[in-house]
UniProtKB/TrEMBL annotation:
Signal peptide: none annotated. Residues 25-44 have a biased composition (Basic and acidic residues). Transmembrane segments: none annotated. Residues 25-49 are annotated as: Disordered. Pfam families: Pkinase. One of its GO terms (molecular function) is ATP binding. SUPFAM superfamilies: EF-hand (SSF47473), Protein kinase-like (PK-like) (SSF56112). This is Calcium-dependent protein kinase. It comes from Theileria orientalis strain Shintoku. It comes from the Eukaryota. Keywords: ATP-binding, Kinase, Nucleotide-binding, Serine/threonine-protein kinase, Transferase. The keyword Transferase applies. Residues 126-382 form the Protein kinase domain. The keyword Kinase applies.
Amino acid sequence: MGNCCRHIDATEVTVMARDENEITAEHEAGRDSQETHQEKKKSLNSDPDYLVPDISDVFFRNVTQPSEGKFKLVGNHENTENGVDSKKNTILRKLNNYPKISDIVLTKDLWRSRIQFSVKLASRYTVGSNAIGYGICGSVNHSVNRRTQKIYALKSLNTMASSKRKLTSVFNEVSIFTQLDHPNIAFMHETYDEGNVCHIVMEYCSGNELYDRLDTYKRFSEAYAIKMTFQMLLTLHYLHSNGVCHRDLKLENWVFANQEIDSLLKMIDFGFARVFEKGIPMGGMHGTVYYVDPEVIDGCYNEKCDIWSTGVIVYMMLSGSPPFNSGGDKEILWKIKKGTLKFEGVRWNSVSELGKDFIRYLLNRNGNERPSAEMALKHEWLKNEYAKYANYKISVELLMQIVKFSRKSPLHRAVIALSVLESDRNCPKEVYRTFFAINASKNGTISFQEFFATMNKHLNLSEEECAQIFNVIGFRNTPELSYTEFVTAVIEHYGTLDINMLSLVYKKLDVFGKGHVDLESFQHAIGREFGGESSEKIFRDTDLNGDGLIDFVERKHGNIIDNDDVVLRMSNKRNHSEGNETETASQLRIGKVRVEVRRCTVGVRGNKITPIGGN
């Protein structure tokens, strides 16, 4: 298949494009002079200094004042005291002047509890010595969680990079990757900020790269290519709907979750990704030679550069070779801009005309005429695959679980949410299919209208009932329901939380590694609010002994731990002077584990029985 992972950067593309202009000069009359053309490029070439702020705050909050909850996109990216969004060309050489990961994480909540500032990576993980891959910003190694022995992929990024360009890439990758939430994007498990190095602990995808699988089979059947293409476009629809452009899509940046032939495809490596605004073109030259959009070569493009790259990948999946190939990079770039797209040879005899038409559809050199990911998903070639999700029979029992989950206490829901994050959202394929069956727009998040339509159809729930459920289960406080929130709401249907997971959840709550959970760490882990209630109220309601701590207790019988006796103890008995009280226990059974929340709920005052404690 040749070397399909040859990268190009801004300087290199400018040089190559100049060579390409020399090649095509005799064929192009009436074009701008080469000098004028280069001046245009120069004016657009400041993009590599762009530094994205915390992405979810860009979506839903005022970046400069996130606590107000107002949407305002900062567009001018002026210099700030900590160097973030700086357009200076000189490198900040003093350590204290470098921006830190904490600078781009503007708010704390349960989702961001995965970003660690006070704990060292080495205390929790053993890192392998051999690299399993390389990204633009650093190597990728195996890492093993010391407690669970689970394998992860570890990417270490140097936040004291030697150039502004590399530094920008590091912070872009972290700030974007930490906020992405889609089943076809490799899940970011944790991030450890250790000053001059940022470690990203990611879901380990054992199925290898799409490149490796294609190299093994040489080319895919059309039916298999359709499945892969559909998943790619689902992912791009999500990214582009949320204002993120990947800018370096290729076979090597799609990996399989496992070795199964029908494994989910996962997108990786966001070193070149950036946030964009609709209607405002991007500059800066990024990508890999075979996959680069012709408009990227010109230095002025939009998010549809990802669609072009996807068209190249589809061509390669069906034929085993790139659509524009040659002996040297500058000849390849010339063919990308001016060459004829051909479907020649016996390998194309088994490919339908619809398949060829789909490739032409994506490889339109005019970015304005090229389809969006949403439009591409509706192409006739993908019609049957689209129908599989649109017509998927949704389990009523699964929907009932959402209703049950919404009625649980905020503490219960927080524990389940943390367990889902700890397990990297691993769940049966039924959950994936149900999610996209409900998500009619296929944009990767469930709107209230989509949620209401499904719950009303299958459970006959009113709009008011659906609104109440929708608001309770959406712990990220965003306008639409994310994939992780959906998995959290349905996962108990499969009874997956066990004793070890409960212990890990407790450690997640112990953010600062104190050996106990106090109000500060509790709020740091789940945010100031969770499920519509303040985290302080949730904590106070469960800490009835008034010691300000949450304790994890393992009751042992001999050398055997009885799962039913593993308790997350939130309180002990409390004596009240106003009368005799009866202590009751609210028990939340999760799989084989009981989360026991002891509360004084009934007090006897005279002849009246009155509530005292929590629910």
